[in-house]
Amino acid sequence: MAEYRLEDLARESGVSARNIRAYRERGLLDPPRRVGRTALYDDYHLSQLNTISQLLRKGYNSAHIAEFFASMRQGADLADILGLQRAVLGPSEDAPADGTSVAIDPQSIEGRRLVEYGLADVVGGKVVMTDGAAADILARSTDHVLYVRALLRFLEAAEESVDDLAEAFVSSLAELYQARVGADYLPRPDEVDDIRRVVQDYRVLGEKVMAARFEHATRRHMVTSAAGYTAGILLGGEWEPRRGA
Q1: Domain containing residue 49
Q2: Does the record carry DNA-binding as a key word (predicted)?
Q3: Which of 70, 89, 108 finishes a domain?
Q4: pLDDT for 123
Q5: Is the pTM for the entire model greater than 0.85?
């Protein structure tokens, strides 16, 4: 599960940092995880904020939101509903801080884009990777900028497609959930574990299926690209077979 600093959560949710603090003080938003003096929020908090925002748009003020949940059928209160959100979103996993710095100017386009994509932070005037897998690969490379440019090109090209794919996946998950329990049914506390299992199983299934399809498509395009590259060299006369001794 992703984690956000206050300013990141504000940007993702569209709720100002000031209002987020106010929701925390009023008990509408769960306390964040603390790492030293840093407050870290997760997707559960983002979902809470989205729920609160939807109710505010319907004309409820913050003082009435708790009453709204308390009056829902089956006597469900805010904790029950947000507890269901936590079950659906899954447990928060503490991502280990990598701390690997890369030879990239923090003020460069590459440095700023890494931070925007959440792959790095600027610490002490250096670009420090926060994604462990990316950090491991960059640590083995001799030209960090070259690798980062290739990575950013891929991320920028895939951003819209990935968002569309994620939206389709979540829509299919919502259909699965509604088909199982009903469109407006709020599970009882003793049913939440079963809902959590169904959601997590489906997420794993979706991730594995899409990873396999991506790997298959990547292999196909790599074969085509390699063949075209080799043919281009041969046809261009820029390569000569090695002569035997």
Answers
A1: 3-89
A2: yes
A3: 89
A4: 86
A5: no
Which tokens go with 99? 């701390």
What gap in Å lies between CA 154 and CA 108, rounded to an integer? Answer: 18
CATH number of the domain at 50, please: 1.10.1660.10
Query: Rounded distance, CA 48 to CA 150, Å?
Result: 36
pLDDT for 17 equals 92
3-class SS string, the chain? CCEECHHHHHHHHCCCHHHHHHHHHCCCCCCCEEECCEEEEEHHHHHHHHHHHHHHHCCCCHHHHHHHHHCCHHHCCHHHHHHHHHHHHCCCCCCCCCCEEECCCCCCHHHHHHHHCCCEEEECCEEEECCHHHHHHHHHCCCHHHHHHHHHHHHHHHHHHHHHHHHHHHHHHHHHHHHHHCCCCCCCHHHHHHHHHHHHHHHHHHHHHHHHHHHHHHHHHHHHHHHHHHHHHHHHCCCCCCCCC
Residue-wise pLDDT for 22-51, tens only, equals: 888 877 788 898 888 889 998 888 888 888
At 77 the pLDDT is 46
Could you tell me the two tokens for 113? 């884009």
Domain C-terminal end among 89, 108, 135: 89
Q: Which residues of the chain have pLDDT under 50?
A: 69-79, 92-98, 245
pLDDT of residue 73: 32
Total of domains in the chain: 2
pLDDT confidence of residue 178: 81
Within-domain flag for 99? no
Instruction: Identify whether 145 is part of a domain.
Output: no
| Spatial contact of 95 and 88, defined as CB atoms under 8 Å apart | no
Domain assignment present for residue 220? The answer is: yes
